[in-house]
Specification:
The protein is mostly helical and 166 residues long. 84% of the residues lie in helices and 0% in strands. Helix 2 runs parallel beside helix 4 and helix 3 runs antiparallel to helix 4. The model has no long low-confidence stretch (mean pLDDT 84).
């Protein structure tokens, strides 16, 4: 929570370096995961601020460094924290949170297995990498998961309502 209150770029950088030192064994692996997960978000936000800076007289460089470094720090910290802490043990203090976590984890595992099945089925049916077919495949899989998520959310909300969560 204290990481959210940091405003000075130098302090954010020092905390980032300290976090790198603490996670020295996993630094490369964590950096890859962090950069993969925030690249599109940071690129989109950065381009938006650069475009906005043309219309207003704003020092965009210092803000871009600040916001990108802060997003990196927060994401790195979250990945590092949950690599060290077992989520099930972390939320074991509350019966309700444990129940919600188990529902979420079971849904994640189910979706991951279904996606892997789709990917392997596609791979088995296509000899070459055909980009046109790949786009259609990705669209159909996305549509499937969207429909599945809506249906599952409705079922789970009814189940939670029956158990007194709402």
């Amino acid at each position: 929570m204290a990481l959210l209150w940091l405003r000075d770029v130098r302090v954010i950088f020092v905390v980032t370096v300290l976090l790198w030192i603490v996670s020295y064994r996993d630094i490369v692996k964590l950096n890859k995961r962090v950069l993969k997960s925030i690249f599109l978000f940071n690129a989109g936000i950065s381009l938006g601020y650069v475009a906005l800076s043309f219309f207003k007289d704003v020092d965009v460089l210092s803000f871009l460094v600040y916001i990108n470094l802060k997003v990196y720090l927060l994401t790195y910290f979250v990945f590092w924290f949950f690599k060290r802490v077992d989520m099930i043990e972390f939320f074991s203090f509350s019966k309700e949170l444990s129940y919600l976590l188990s529902i979420s984890l079971s849904q994640i595992v189910s979706y991951k297995k279904t996606y892997e099945d789709f990917r392997l089925a596609y791979k088995a049916r296509v000899i070459k990498r055909l980009r046109d077919r790949e786009k259609g495949f990705i669209g159909r899989v996305f549509d499937f998961f969207l429909q599945k998520a809506l249906k599952d959310a409705k079922e789970r909300s009814l189940a939670m309502k029956a158990r007194g969560f709402f």
